[in-house]
């Protein structure tokens, strides 16, 4: 499951942030749309933290999105270079 999530998460981050920003808007009131935007962005943050915890617990490294080889990285490092294929995560 986490291998597939790792492959398509990069394509979903920007649209989720944009949708969350549009839902939250610039009004200070707590509208239903604003709450939905906060929940959406909060779920994205929780998914990122869950992914990091899973990779740390496995002690095996993350799979490269391009070649699938395991890459040993430090936790919470957003950009890495695959030593096998050179793909930038």
Task: Explain the overall architecture.
This protein has 89 residues and is mainly α. It has a domain at 2-61. Helix content is 56%, strand content 4%. The chain contains 2 helices and 2 strands. Strands 1-2 form a two-stranded antiparallel sheet. α1 packs antiparallel against α2 (32-58). It is elongated and about 50 Å long.
Number of helices, counting only DSSP H or I runs of 4 residues or more: 2
Helical amount: 55-70%
Beta fraction: under 5%
Mean pLDDT: 77
Numbering strands along the chain, what is their spatial order in the largest sheet? 1-2
Number of strands: 2
Helix/sheet category: mainly alpha
Low-pLDDT segments: none
Q: Mind summarizing the main beta sheet?
A: 2 strands, antiparallel
Question: Can you describe this structure in just a few lines?
Answer:
Helices cover 56% and strands 4% of the residues. It has 89 residues and is mainly α.
Provide the fold topology:
Elements: H1 2-24, H2 32-58, E1 62-63, E2 70-71
Antiparallel strand pairs: 1-2
Helix pairs in contact: 1-2
Kindly list the characteristics that best describe this protein.
mainly alpha; 2 strands; 89 residues; two-stranded antiparallel ribbon
